[in-house]
Hints:
single chain, 578 residues, 19% strand, alpha/beta
Amino acid sequence: MDATGLKEKAEAWLAADPDAATVAELRDVLARGDLADLADRFAGDLEFGTAGLRGVLGAGPNRMNRAVVRRTTAGLARYLKATVPDVTTRGVVVGRDGRRLSAELAEDTACVFAAEGIPAHVFPMLAPTPLTAFATLHLNAAAGVMVTASHNPPEYNGYKVYWGNGAQIIPPHDKGIASFIAKVEPANQVELLTPTEAYARGLWRDVPDSLGDAYLDAILKLRVHGRGSDSLRIVYTAMHGVGGAWMERAMERAGFSNFHVVAEQHRPDGSFPTVRFPNPEEPGAMDLSLATAQRVEADLVLANDPDADRLAVMVRDGTGKLRMLTGNEVGVLLGHYVLVQGPTRRSKPHLVATIVSSTQLGDIAGELGAAYDEVLTGFKWIANRAIEREKAEDTQFVFGYEEALGYAVGTVTRDKDGISAALVFADLAAWCESRGKTVLGYLEEIQRRFGLYVSGQRNFTFPGAEGAQVITRIMDGLRSAPPTCVGELSVKNVRDYKKGEKLPPSNVLAFELEGGGRVTARPSGTEPKIKYYFELKETLGSGEPVEAARARAEARLRKLIDAFIALVRERGQPEVGA
């Protein structure tokens, strides 16, 4: 698009933008004549999909702003009225985290629903994402909206949608909602009530405090050991997010009296002053947690991301050093724990993982007689598959996870829940302590029986419209000419999930290697990244120390990763991101 076309689009946007702040922002871009910035802002509409919306805050259709959220909510409201007959009775839950503009976006959301005649059950305080998911079920709402960008940097925000079953939306609802959004009038013509008007008409309803108590009661029942510990020293960080107060209440009620928080990161702060990227997986994000853990001599470190739907864990190794567990290790520990140590169940237990997570949970489920599914990346698929099998086969969902630090224990929420997962992991650690074992000692028991699996991941970021084209070229190249070997390992099978043979079509490629290894490539659904996942299985020798086997496996894994990245770069991937 040429400069004239961009400026015409910008002026049309300005005429319909109801927010003076983004109007001023865009006028400044026009005054500076920054055509590259304009081109990115108007490259297209921020796409509504199964993750809802997520993007950089700012003016323009390719940004998160009040205009986009008002039109999105109007489209969602009209879709709900067309498909859910009792939506005007059941209403919609609206929650928000502590990010910049979250309060304004949540208020706009509630006020547009109210203008459409749909009651909005609004959290009067900041709410973790798992609490919004819980409220959708607990209040029997027709849907839920959570304003959050999860673990993204401070310049981002997002809009996450739950269906009435408590799970994130999946097809056909995403396409249906998007089609209704496309028909919505310009943002400044979207009707919305003021909060006062909505209150007066009974269309703005504060979520009661009793709902939080109900959530805490429910997650406390997920514990297996259930006896807490006075001696287990635990450090927790909220990562400047909204999970802190909830974790304190949960740990106190569970009997973990030796509980310490990372004070510098405990209160919600959407600027994330101590971390550039508020994701526990990112380099440096856990530095303050480590410092606190060293000061109090912690045995266990637990970390949520800012909306508290993810969990990271650090434990002491045999040398006394704190070691970050991988998402797969946490998933295997929690899954094995609740499956094997949990109560006797009336129905066949069901576990679910994603296609980029470790295959080990499936091996465990198969050997122990549990139902198991492998689904596409994204917790929406885990939750909806669990619901589907419960209805069709009367299975009992006990655990699901994705390697990106997302875990669900039981059915309290139909989404990943970093608060309940942290509580159950503390329960696991207390159980290990009662046996005279460490968490890593328990992991070794699992590995000696089921094998030692090691995994790794590499991400490459390509921002903007040009970056999306780079990612497309990489995936197209791997698809049209898949490698026959990666380093010293031959490729035994290529699984192209775009064909949609057993799962919905998805732009993912998996290269299955000799000896049980796997390399998977997929573009991120929420960030301008391409992600590569790697896994190898190692068999421990009789009496061999687990650390010796791990060192051998991780050396092999490094070679595999280096070989694959070299292969992709030989095919023209730019030297960008890491």
